[in-house]
Amino acid sequence: MMASDLRIVLLGKAGAGKNRVAKAILGDIELYEEHEKCVLYEGEHAGKSVCMVDTPGWDRVSIECTTKKIKNEISRSVTLCPPGPHALILVLPVNIGDVPSQNELKSTSRHVELLSERVWDHTMVLFLCDRDVQESTITAHIQEAKKLLEKCSGRHCVMRLSESKTEVHGLLKEIESMVEENLGDSFLPQVYYEEIQSKIPKDISELKKTYEDREEMLKQGYQKRLSQYKKHSEEEPVLKQRRGSITGTRPSFNEDENQAMDIHAIKSRYRDELLALARYYLKPISLLVLAMIGALIGSVVGSNFGVVGSGTGIFIGIVVTVPLALLLISAASLARQSSTLVEVGKPENTDYCQ
């Protein structure tokens, strides 16, 4: 993994052993017992700085039994390691004679998805057990969690709690492999993801629908003419076909070929215009992302100086960068409108099916 640090969020039910995982990775740290708020741990492992957020445990039976306060803390957890965690580790304890039921595993999925369904791309299941647990017991737990594992593309790791550092190295290696699969991207908290999505111009989706409709219209016209041609050919006597009888009238094949070329032309034009819109909006959207990340980092750094410092960090990140991004979006909109006016002035044949 290229990043010099590693940001991890630990998830799991109450009593899953998340704090034991934190101690195994970070070593000599002061642990907090079961709590109702997220706990942020910072330390080093193998020369890398590690930021780890331990979330409060949820109810094992049903998400409805988990308090609203704990649900909110789970949602908040991913904002405590800005700009977002590289990995979310779902801790499932492996206990002899206590294989989790399907209802419990469904409840687990619902708790994880408090962070959105996108979170599974950055999630790994950790089966945590003592060193004397039999392999058959571990296998039974993995098999029972098959549907859950499918959500995170089967990513999982078994960690036996012992004095050996091999287990920890193995876990971190699996985490780094997952980060590499995600091209180094971290999980973006849902609140910022929704904000970014709301800034993406509707023009792109509208443009896509317009061209899909026009392309479909051309295809239907082409298929209709081709079907008429085939039907006419089947009904026309073979003898008249050979003699080139003037009684048989065929639709022009050249027109069909031209329509096929028109379909290709519309696809090419759609791609060109979509790329043009992307170029217009890529930089502003990137700046919006940086603004929100800057605000988040500012709030965390400023928190060392209390509530006022945190608020100042958010102010600097948003008030300075977001207006700049919005200014660029306005410029992009004017450029796009100018392009549209030029297109409107051009004659266009809209009779696609004749």
Automatic annotation (TrEMBL):
**Where do the segments described as Disordered lie?**
233-254
* Keyword annotations: GTP-binding, Membrane, Nucleotide-binding, Transmembrane, Transmembrane helix
What PROSITE patterns is this protein classified in? G_AIG1
| Keyword GTP-binding tagged | yes
State the name under which the record lists this protein: AIG1-type G domain-containing protein
Q: Name the protein family.
A: Belongs to the TRAFAC class TrmE-Era-EngA-EngB-Septin-like GTPase superfamily. AIG1/Toc34/Toc159-like paraseptin GTPase family. IAN subfamily.
Q: Which GO terms describe its molecular function?
A: GTP binding
Q: Output the superkingdom of the source species.
A: Eukaryota
**Tell me, what's a Pfam family for it?**
AIG1
The AIG1-type G domain covers: 3-196
